Amino acid sequence: MRQVIKIGVLLLGGVGLPVMANDYIVARSSDPAIERGSAWAAGSSLALGAGQSVTMVTTGGDVLSLEGADGGIVLPARAAGGSASAEALQALIKRPMPRRSFGAMRGPGDCPSAEDLKTLDEILAAAAREGCDRNARVALENYLSADEAEAESTSSEAVSESNSESSESDEKDRA
């Protein structure tokens, strides 16, 4: 199951927890100093300034969207790992999108379509197949976009709930 976490200023550390250098893999970053595909350990400090954002993926398929702060941020302690290989995930994210050359491109007929690749494990399995890299990269982008849309939807719902609770308490106060 995918979990989406939207975090503003994160002050949680991984104190006393084992640290792995590949707890989080950067999928997207608005800060050019934080490279796509770079690996970060839980509890690491990240110099992500205010107004900057980064999207990270874990081997468990969790997508973490972080917003920067003036003093940077600290990556949270991570839950149990997933079955995906951190190295395979990192390699897929780092690889540039395969370019289509002029004319028709042929590939093996046994590549699943990007729409059929729903889990991180399925995406990485397709990426390991010869000729299926483009579909795997498109599926990874779809996977990340779906989680970001879910996170925005979740935070919008939380704001709506907060606003409605606030107006209900105002009405009670007036009565």
Give structural attributes:
175 residues, alpha+beta, five-stranded mixed sheet, two-stranded antiparallel ribbon, 7 strands
Average of the residue pLDDT scores? 74
SSE order, as H and E?
EEEEEEEHHH
Spatial strand order of the main sheet: 1-6-5-2-3
Distance between the termini: 45 Å
Helix vs. strand class: alpha+beta
Q: Give the biggest sheet.
A: 5 strands, mixed
Short description:
The protein is an alpha+beta fold.
How would you describe the overall organization of this protein?
- With 175 residues, the protein is of the alpha+beta class.
- It contains 3 helices and 7 strands.
- It has one domain (4-167).
- 34% of the residues lie in helices and 15% in strands.
List the topology elements:
Elements: E1 4-7, E2 24-29, E3 39-40, E4 45-46, E5 53-57, E6 63-67, E7 73-74, H1 86-94, H2 120-128, H3 133-174
Parallel strand pairs: 1-6
Antiparallel strand pairs: 2-3, 2-5, 4-7, 5-6
Helix pairs in contact: 2-3
